Amino acid sequence: MTATPSRILIADDEADLRALLQRYLSDQGLVVRSVENAQPVERLLARERFDVLVLDVMMPGEDGLALCRRLRAQGETIPILMLTARGDPIDRIVGLEMGADDYLPKPFTPRELLARLQALIRRQHMLGAHAGPPTEADSVRFGAFTLHRQQRRLERDGDDVPLSTVEFNLLQALAQHPNRPLGRDRLMVLAHGHDHAATDRSIDVQVMRLRKLIETDPTQPRHIQTVWGLGYVFVPDGQLQGRAPAQPADGTA
């Protein structure tokens, strides 16, 4: 099976640089989307899967640092590489403190950016990879869908379903505990880690988005069901639960 190309989202207000990077990175086998400011980034992350987000620090409107900080506060875990025309080391420190994973000062060569992107992608794969080739245990099947956890992708009848990083992490967290209810606090930790700033409301919104993608009728969900007073439960076979299970997963209440 052909590997799914890595997907890169670039936000930079320099049109010439966007065009150059779009051509070069596409020629290297990456799928590239580029935008001129921060405004469409959050919407694209919610609708599509990307492996790395490249943010220019100096953009009109919301700058890259502010957007990075806001995305991390919302629980977004996509690797972020910051671009800056400022060479002051303190800018790099601030960017990393805001949640960036890497920092590249301008001017730079497209080849250097490519190398840094590949390093971030490799690190993501290593963090989620199992030893050896993918096995049956790496996939979770439910309804018409197959969740490939190692490859970080979702299929429906053989076709890829675009997922944002947040959506994938949440679905994977649910799928790792089938038929076991997860409280919202526990689910936030499983999906986003301990150092998150997500809220109960943000988890509810993310679940609503996932239901729109995987449920035949999101108003009557069969795979991601609500456990009233607790949180949610993932039901692979789609059997409706008559009542909430008595024992929550990991003792969460």
Mean pLDDT across residues: 81
Helix percent band: 25-40%
Tell me the major beta sheet: 5 strands, parallel
Distance between the termini: 42 Å
Helical element count? Answer: 8
Contiguous low-pLDDT stretches (5 residues minimum) are 129-136, 243-253
Per DSSP E runs of 2 or more residues, the count of β-strands stands at 12
In percent, how much strand structure appears in the residues? 15-25%
The gross shape turns out to be globular
Spatially, the strands of the biggest sheet line up as 2-1-3-4-5
- SSE run: EHEHEHEHEHEEEEHEHHEE
Radius of gyration: 19 Å
Quickly give the structural class.
Answer: alpha/beta
Would you kindly provide a written description of the structure presented here, covering whatever features stand out?
The protein is an alpha/beta fold. It is 37% helix and 19% strand. It contains eight helices and twelve strands. The strands form three sheets. A five-stranded parallel β-sheet has the order 2-1-3-4-5, sandwiched between helices. A four-stranded antiparallel β-sheet has the order 6-7-8-9, covered by helices on one side. Strands 10-12-11 form a three-stranded antiparallel β-sheet. Strand 7 (145-148) and strand 8 (153-156) form a beta hairpin. Helix 6 packs across helix 7 and helix 6 (165-175) crosses helix 8 (200-214). The chain is globular, with a radius of gyration of 19 Å. The N and C termini lie far apart (42 Å).
